[in-house]
Amino acid sequence: MLKQPLLAAGLVALLALPAAAQNTNSGTDKFAQLETLLPTPNTYRTASGAPGNQYWQQRADYNIRVKLDDAKQSISGDEDITYTNLSPDVLTYLWVQLDQNVLDKNSITATTEVGQIQQRMPFQALEYLQKSEFDGGFKIAEVKMKGGKALPHVINHTMMRIDLPTPLRPKQAVTFSIKWSYNINDQTKINQRSGYEYFPEDKNYLYEIAQFYPRMAVYSDNQGWQHKQFLGNGEFALPFGDYRVSITAPADHVVGATGTLQNASEVLSSAQRQRLEQAKNSNKPVLIVSPLEAERAEQNRAKGTKTWTYAAKNVRDFAWASSRKFIWDAMGVKQNGVPVMCMSYYPKEGNPLWGKYSTEVIAHTIKTYSKFTIPYAYPVAISVHGPVGGMEYPMLSFNGGRPEKDGTYSADRKYGMISVIIHEVGHNFFPMIVNSDERQWTWMDEGLNTFVQYLTEQEWERNYPSRRGEPANIVAYMQSDKSLQTPIMTNSESVLQFGNNAYGKPATGLNILRETIMGRELFDYAFKEYATRWAYKHPTPADFFRTMEDASGVDLDWFWRGWFYTVDKTDLAIDGVKWYTVDSKNPEIENARKRELINKAPQSISQQRNLQDIKKTLVDDKPELKDFYNQYDPLATTEADKQRYQQMVKGMTPEQQQRLNSGLHFYEVSLKNKGGLTMPVIVQMTYEDGKQEIMNIPAEIWRKNNAEVTKVFITEKPVVSFVLDPFLQTADTDLSNNAWPQKAAPSRFELFEYQQRAQPNPMQQQSALQQKEQKPVNGTSSTGGTN
């Protein structure tokens, strides 16, 4: 709403008026504290968000022997698990996760999955619907105590309860063994977190293997056993421990895995061992297995096997990859003096992208995440290219991003590949080190990781095209139908719009905290403190919320409540502006100003037409009808006016006289919170001379009225416009109401002609153009020579 300038009755009167009552909206107080929502602090988890002096967590150590059957695409193995009870509780049974049972024919996931039949469906969709024909669940052959005595056990879908012969008391440990097998899924048909890819051109398989062994569930102080079924979205909650894993694969396979290789002399050639040693101090990737060596391996089939043994300390999981197609390169970096081997495994189909970028991206990720969290302390970090688009495990991740067969690729493919490697390698920090419960809260690992991914992308390349992190990128989601959204604080299996909710929205929220609400210095310190406190431990949402406030001294309960516990959206609006200037009471000044306003005032349409139609009025024709008031000028300053003004000024203090003649401008800006989400108010004022000023008003401006407030701005120069959130900091979903005077928010629509065939990427187009320019024309080459 536009308002013409109004005159104040006087400076003293204006400043003496109390602020209008702006009370909290009853029942919708967005500044209520979170105590009623967060768990009560105790000796395990303190009110500051730090682990308490009696904090404890369990431990599980593994000795695993596993064999890959390349002919049948199956796994068989056995393991010894040593479980140490560090809790104050006596345990009579243990819970083990059987996540591979998500591919059991009778899994809960398969029976509860919903879908629809379309009039036209691709073969892949039909294969997906029929995936229940594939039996990929665990076949548990035996569960027994160390020494051979069978253990009673009950399988409940993706969980197995093992009943102990004697209670496991605090500080005691028990060792038992499990023998199992299962069929590996074709990842191109049954999309899971691990599987194989078949390459028909050379008849080879590439395996990315995870969740391949029965794993201990978490038993914690805040929820007891975490044995919620694995339905597909909620990933994994796992205790820390040491692993020793022996992987038997075809003799011509290259096997990469979590941890460090223990028997390099048995599985690598002397040349490969020398290259690996060289890579430790190289500033660029060194080929351990070259493309030529990989292509030679593709053409043969070894009859025997090799066993690769890997060991890893203080990790929560283990994964591996195996193929005769693997090219392998490596490069060493150091973090706080600790050497880290950054390594990539990929088939030739991944080049040139993978040879050029993968290991460099790993090194960059390790360095950048270490800066914003804690130093990376594991000895290796690995990226594997295969059928899994993106999945994370300690020290090893599976990543997509494959160029076209001719070696070209689009910008989207390039940056998509770099981003997924940053993201999955970054998961080493969240949740592999800062070990949150993914089965319960996806956002605690995906959201926090996506946020640091954004920071890492921006340090990779100026103006990197990050998909998530910038507030403007989450606007479309927050504009969407609220019935299709869930609060961030929703269990992983119940989240709607999974990518936006669990990845994009929490990452954006953290960026808003860092840039707009807390500032970089306070945020970075608190975020690093959270990572330091909870490294190699099991944090909860409350631990994160409390630590961020404790280490920064900023009350953020209103932010957690709005951004994490609701589906409200940001929509702050300028509802109107009133402009006041001080009446100086100086008749010479004020009368001149009033005269100027009268002269500038527009004439009505009647006044304009009367000037044309009424040639002479009655008093013009009969001057005798005129009197004093026909010559009187009410805006003419008299001596009496001047004397009254001088008398008034004498009764004022010097400070009052200064204020009276300051020439300041007062703007009363009416603000409304239409979206419901509380946010800071960022106001850009543009002055008459073109200069601009930014005012950052904390969100607490809404604390007494969550819906509407007025704010007075005092300026020395006239303001010609006010704009809210000029730099798109708060994910405001409606920019059309952010300006005074109001202005239309730009938008666009696109016209296109439907194309059935995929268009070549720009690299392909350029290559085709270059080939065309080099093609001989009329028997003459492009260089001017003749054939």
Describe it:
The chain has about 775 residues and is of the alpha+beta class. The chain is built from 21 helices and 31 strands. A seven-stranded mixed beta sheet has the order 5-8-3-2-14-18-16. Helix 12 (about 520-535) crosses helix 13. Keywords: Aminopeptidase, Hydrolase, Protease, Signal. It comes from Hymenobacter endophyticus. This is M1 family metallopeptidase. Its EC number is 3.4.11.-. GO terms for molecular function: aminopeptidase activity.
Gist?
The chain is of the alpha+beta class and 787 residues long. The protein contains 21 helices and 31 strands.
Sequence-ordered SSE layout with sheet pairings:
Layout: E1 6-7, H1 11-16, E2 59-69, E3 74-84, E4 91-97, H2 108-112, H3 123-129, E5 139-145, E6 153-156, E7 159-168, E8 173-183, E9 195-199, E10 204-209, E11 215-216, E12 219-220, E13 224-225, E14 241-250, E15 254-257, E16 260-261, H4 264-267, H5 270-279, E17 286-289, H6 291-298, E18 305-315, E19 320-323, E20 327-335, E21 338-346, H7 353-372, E22 380-385, E23 390-393, E24 396-399, H8 411-426, H9 443-460, H10 475-479, H11 498-517, H12 520-534, H13 541-552, H14 557-565, E25 572-581, H15 587-600, H16 605-613, H17 618-621, H18 628-631, H19 639-650, H20 654-660, E26 665-673, E27 681-687, E28 692-697, E29 708-715, E30 719-724, E31 739-740, H21 762-774
Parallel strand pairs: 1-25, 2-14, 21-22, 22-24
Antiparallel strand pairs: 2-3, 3-8, 4-7, 4-11, 5-8, 6-7, 9-10, 10-19, 12-13, 14-18, 15-19, 16-18, 17-20, 20-21, 23-24, 25-26, 26-29, 27-28, 27-30, 30-31
Helix pairs in contact: 7-8, 7-9, 8-9, 9-11, 12-13
